[in-house]
Design a protein that fits this description.
This protein is of the alpha/beta class. The protein has 6 helices and 9 strands, in the order βαβαβαβαββββαβα. The longest helix is centred in the middle third of the chain and has 16 residues. The chain starts with a strand and ends in a 6-residue tail after the last helix.
Length: 228
């Protein structure tokens, strides 16, 4: 099974300036340094395609000496905050011609090499069980409402049930999407009709989207609660 990692990493984060390569904890080149080191240790990944328009990231990536790293200079029209995920799906498919695509992000620093290996193994097992793809999630097992009321429990049965008895909901955390190239071609999507939901714990699923997330992640490392 040939697996190619697609790692999109554009320049110009609006919420956290230079988010992908600014110093993070003890890592001078930040999140991109962490993620490339993690991915390079996963033997199940045949190649890593880094798609970026950031010259600073490109210079760092070129200096790593990672043998299976392919650096793609992404066109500016595919590198804005307005670029749709559908456009990136087509972009990923244009860069990978065969096998399976593992789509991941640098913003999941605590998803380490061992975690990727387990995810790939679970994906392979899932294919034999009738699943056609995999995506990672974070479990929500608490009181969830919308404007009409609760959506994961029935107040006419019990107004405040124990949270342990609530049916967990899966929040897509975007740490990993894994599927075949055929799904990208046939469905123009990064998951199929029957994806396996692979839940991560709160540390692994931590996503750096806002400045507070960046600071929390650094604090977790400093307190030795998490490591990369």
């Amino acid at each position: 099974m040939k697996i190619t990692c697609f790692l999109p990493c554009r320049k110009g984060s609006e919420r956290i300036p230079n988010k992908n390569i600014r110093p993070f904890s003890s890592y001078r080149n930040g999140l991109i340094e962490i993620k490339l080191k993690q991915l390079s240790k996963v033997k199940e990944i045949d190649s890593i395609v880094l798609s970026t328009n950031d010259e600073e990231i490109i210079r760092y990536a070129e200096s790593t000496g990672i043998k299976n790293l392919i650096i793609h200079r992404r066109a500016e029209e595919l590198s804005s905050s307005q670029t749709s995920t559908d456009d990136l799906v087509n972009h990923a498919r244009s860069l990978v011609n065969e096998g399976h695509i593992l789509w991941t992000h640098v913003t999941s620093p605590f998803l380490n090499s061992d975690a990727y290996k387990k995810i790939i193994l679970s994906y392979k097992e899932g294919l034999s069980q009738g699943y056609d793809s995999l995506m990672t999630t974070s479990l929500i097992q608490s009181f969830v409402w919308n404007e009409r009321g609760p959506i994961n429990y029935d107040r006419s049965v019990e107004k405040w049930p124990r949270t342990q008895t609530l049916i967990p909901l899966h929040e897509v955390n975007s740490a990993v999407f894994l599927s075949s190239v055929d799904i990208y071609t046939d469905r123009n999507d990064r998951i199929g009709e029957n994806p396996k939901l692979y839940s991560l714990n709160k540390i692994e699923g931590h996503d750096i989207d806002w400045s507070e997330d960046f600071e929390i992640a650094e604090s977790l490392i400093k307190a030795k609660i998490a490591n990369v």
